[in-house]
Amino acid sequence: MRALVTGGAGFIGSHIQDKLINLGHAVAIVDNLRSGKKENLNSKSAFFEVDIRDKKKLPEVFSKFKPETVFHLAAQNEVPYSMDHPQEDLDINIAGMLNLLECCRTHKTKKVIYSNTGGALYGEVDKKDIPVSEDFIVTRPTSYYGVSKRSAEHYLNLYGEIHNLDWISLRYANVYGPRQQGNREAGIIAIFVFKMLKEETPTINGNGAHTRDYVYVGDVVEANIKALSHKENDYFNISTGIETSNLEVFDSIEKVLRTGIKPTFGVNRPGDPLRNALSPQKAKKLLGWESKIPFPEGIKKTVDYYLSFRA
After folding, report:
1. Distance between CA atoms of residues 126 and 120, nearest Å
2. Which residues have CB under 8 Å from 233's CB, separation 6+?
3. Per CATH, is 188-210+243-275+299-310 categorized as 3.40.50.1820?
């Protein structure tokens, strides 16, 4: 199979790239290196430094590589940034998706596997609805990022119906693991680890009680591989269904690092829901997927990865 991975120099995309290559597939990467890193590229991948919004260069990539399947991860993926830059968020996540889908239509790509958001998509929900299932009606995303990612899923759905394009939308919980950057606004685990390794004090937004559902990047990669063979167009939560608070995240990292550092507490970030966890039952039933890495084990793997650079 010929697989194109947009955002493949980034955190999740680079892991998907490596897995596809290990399985024997031909892989090409499209990434503008806005947040991706060249060091994440596999030497066996073809690399195109192209923005998904580029209406000239992206079709050239499709003409040259002729992908059968596209794993679409390129995105503006930071909630706070979207709140300050809604137009840019729209341009990347919606217009970028539309440009990509046009390339898929024109060049007869068979399938798109879309890396969507789960937490930001569903927004603030009542306690009784947690963990949130895919049946929950999406009406209240609390950030422009959530709106743009949901809109892109609508375009994907409609292109599938009109142009006979197969698709899967994977609605991720909060993904963490090796290669996640700790110098950006998204990725609390990487941010905390980076700061604590530099003997700096992490700041927890709010009082520490905000919860998220954390899923290890290796499990997310396996969900993408499962999606390859799924025959029906559909969307799935990729999650654990378990709520973990910000303070519990800090404590889990501190148990590994033993720095003695105590966190400080700041203001709530605009656009952030108070609580979130997603039900993985649909993915378990229909994709045959479920998370395998428990949170403490995932934290240990993640911390060990960053410690390896200090050896």
Report:
1. 15
2. 157, 160, 166, 167, 168
3. no
pTM, two decimals, is 0.94
pLDDT, tens only, 266-308: 888 776 778 889 999 999 999 999 999 999 999 999 999 999 8
Catalytic residue numbers read: 145
Contact (Cβ atoms closer than 8 angstroms) between residue 257 and residue 51: no
Contact at 8 Å (CB) between 145 and 120?
A: yes
Tokens of 121: 């998509």
pLDDT, tens digit, 9 for 90 and up, residues 206-227? 889 899 999 999 999 999 999 9
The answer to whether 31 touches 6, Cβ cutoff 8 Å, is yes
Cα distance between residue 14 and residue 5, in whole Å: 8
Residue at token pair 């947009």? 6
Of 3.40.50.1820, 3.30.300.230, 1.20.1300.10, 3.40.50.720, the CATH number of 2-176+215-239+279-292 is: 3.40.50.720
